[in-house]
């Protein structure tokens, strides 16, 4: 076998001791093979490692300085001798060779001395290779020839005859307990019935520590064993323990499933709380689950009761003072009918916002601390679909109010724009009149003032700098 290409790779060697870190290539993380050193930064690498690295990137793998193949050269003899003197194992160690030597001597061992190295078969008609130990001798013969087993008369290869003898079923073997010779195929049956084989007491699992020959178990130990009298109790206890173990396994599986479902429910509840937002009331849920602490004095109730929340500011209405002009216009456009006609008309329908407020009032009763509020009557907690319906109605009402407010803002902005346009026109007319009066002496043909004094408050002299109207 040609080991030259194999030995040229740094991954082919198996080192007995841990190599020095200063002799390890930073690319393959193995000791140097044919070490080369850069002349620019003095870093060393394996020859077969640095060559493809420089083709991919012309930089040093350690400090990233510019580097080319022309900058590389052989390492110093000291580094080469140190890596060649490292102790390695034979490459045929998996086949059975236990030889170790310096790395520089491994090639000679594989070429001439290793008995587990492969060589061509001495039989010219055999195309296979054989181990050197199988073909050495005065009269070498082909190790792949077929020979007959002396015990079972089976045809096996000559180099596999020893391994076949160790597992041949017709080969005789000797019992280590009674020294009786028997075929290897009868070994399991003989081991189960050998009278001299050491066996433990049948009640060893319950605490009996006796161990002895099988022949003495029934004659000597069993009649005097204290655990033999409790054999029935042990069987019943073992049966019940097995049943408990099976039941515990089932309960553990059910508990794991219940914990998984509980985690899913908690996740969904958290998502629902996030969706409800300010409409979620955790104090009501806590009050429903908190046990009654018993009678207490009014002073303790007053001390423990939380302070009432501050009242929320009312939602802006389109008819609030900010929109007084709209209320006035609405009153003139839609006058209220007389009282005698209003008595016969049905009540006006609720607006979307009022409808939503009425629905939400059923789910969010007024606080007991509010003046004039009636004590809340005990009622079941609202269901989730009803709460979501009320929430949707409230959102619609809020959207409608926002659209009304946006329309009012747009109308006010348009009115302000018209006022600003009128003011601009008035200012322009005033400036024109003043500029015409100030430049009456320099009126030219057609009654117009000169161009340099037309748009100024006063008539500046010809040499004075003009003042812009936009800066007034």
Structural overview:
The protein has 472 residues and is mainly alpha-helical. Helices cover 42% and strands 8% of the residues. It is built from 15 helices and 13 strands. The protein has helices at residues 4-7, 47-56, 77-84, 106-113, 132-135, 161-167, 187-193, 214-221, 231-276, 282-289, 298-304, 324-333, 339-344, 352-363, 384-438, and strands spanning 35-38, 44-46, 72-74, 87-89, 100-102, 118-120, 129-131, 146-148, 155-157, 172-174, 181-183, 198-200, 211-213. The strands form six sheets. It has a three-stranded antiparallel sheet with strand order 2-1-3. Helix 14 packs across helix 15 (384-438). It is flat. The two termini are 105 Å apart.
Task: Set down the secondary structure blueprint.
Layout: H1 4-7, E1 35-38, E2 44-46, H2 47-56, E3 72-74, H3 77-84, E4 87-89, E5 100-102, H4 106-113, E6 118-120, E7 129-131, H5 132-135, E8 146-148, E9 155-157, H6 161-167, E10 172-174, E11 181-183, H7 187-193, E12 198-200, E13 211-213, H8 214-221, H9 231-276, H10 282-289, H11 298-304, H12 324-333, H13 339-344, H14 352-363, H15 384-438
End-to-end gap: 105 Å
Q: What strand line-up does the widest sheet have?
A: 2-1-3
Report the average pLDDT across residues. Answer: 74
What is the N-to-C order of secondary-structure elements (H for helix, E for strand)? Answer: HEEHEHEEHEEHEEHEEHEEHHHHHHHH
The level of helicity is 40-55%
Q: Per DSSP, what share of the residues sits in E-state strands of 2 or more residues? A: 5-15%
The biggest sheet amounts to: 3 strands, antiparallel
Number of helices: 15
Report the count of strand segments.
13
Structural class: mainly alpha
Residue windows where pLDDT falls under 50 for at least 5 positions: 285-290, 293-335, 348-357, 362-371, 442-472
The whole-angstrom Rg is 53 Å
């Amino acid at each position: 076998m040609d080991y030259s290409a194999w030995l040229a790779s740094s991954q082919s060697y198996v080192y007995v001791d841990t190599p020095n870190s200063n002799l390890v290539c930073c690319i393959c993380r193995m000791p140097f093979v044919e070490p080369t050193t850069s002349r620019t930064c003095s870093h060393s690498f394996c020859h077969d490692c640095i060559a493809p690295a420089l083709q991919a990137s012309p930089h040093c793998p350690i400090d990233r300085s510019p580097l080319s193949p022309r900058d590389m050269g052989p390492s110093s003899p000291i580094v080469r001798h140190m890596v060649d003197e490292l102790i390695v194992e034979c490459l045929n160690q998996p086949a059975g060779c236990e030889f170790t030597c310096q790395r520089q001597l491994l090639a000679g061992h594989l070429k001439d001395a290793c008995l587990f190295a492969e060589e061509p078969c001495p039989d010219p008609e055999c195309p296979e290779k054989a181990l050197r130990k199988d073909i050495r001798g005065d009269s070498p013969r082909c190790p792949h020839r077929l020979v007959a087993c002396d015990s079972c008369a089976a045809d096996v290869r000559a180099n596999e005859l020893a391994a076949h003898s160790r597992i041949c079923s017709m080969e005789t073997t000797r019992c280590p307990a009674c020294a009786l010779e028997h075929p290897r195929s009868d070994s399991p049956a003989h081991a189960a019935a050998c009278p001299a084989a050491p066996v433990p007491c049948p009640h060893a699992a319950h605490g009996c520590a006796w161990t002895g020959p099988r022949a003495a178990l029934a004659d000597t130990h069993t009649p005097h064993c204290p655990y033999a009298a409790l054999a029935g109790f042990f069987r019943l206890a073992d049966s019940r323990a097995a049943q408990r173990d099976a039941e515990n396994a089932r309960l553990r599986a059910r508990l794991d499933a219940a914990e998984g479902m509980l985690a899913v429910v908690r996740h969904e509840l958290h998502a629902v709380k996030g969706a409800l937002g300010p409409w979620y009331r955790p104090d009501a849920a806590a009050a429903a689950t908190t046990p009654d602490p018993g009678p207490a004095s009014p002073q303790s109730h007053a001390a423990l009761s939380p302070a009432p929340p501050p009242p929320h500011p009312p939602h802006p209405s389109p008819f609030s003072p900010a929109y007084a002009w709209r209320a006035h216009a609405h009153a003139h456009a839609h006058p209220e009918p007389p009282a005698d006609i209003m008595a016969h008309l049905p009540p006006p329908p609720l607006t979307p916002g009022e409808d939503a407020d009425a629905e939400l009032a059923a789910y969010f009763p007024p606080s007991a601390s509010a003046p004039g509020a009636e004590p809340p009557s005990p009622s079941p907690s609202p269901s989730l679909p009803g709460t979501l319906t009320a929430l949707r109605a409230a959102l619609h009402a809020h959207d409608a109010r926002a659209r009304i407010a946006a329309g009012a803002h747009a109308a006010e902005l348009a009115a302000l724009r018209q006022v600003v346009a009128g003011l601009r026109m008035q200012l322009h007319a005033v400036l024109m009149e003043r500029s015409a009066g100030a430049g009456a002496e320099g009126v030219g043909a057609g009654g117009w003032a000169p161009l340099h004094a037309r748009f100024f408050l006063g008539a500046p002299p010809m040499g004075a700098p003009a003042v812009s109207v936009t800066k007034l």
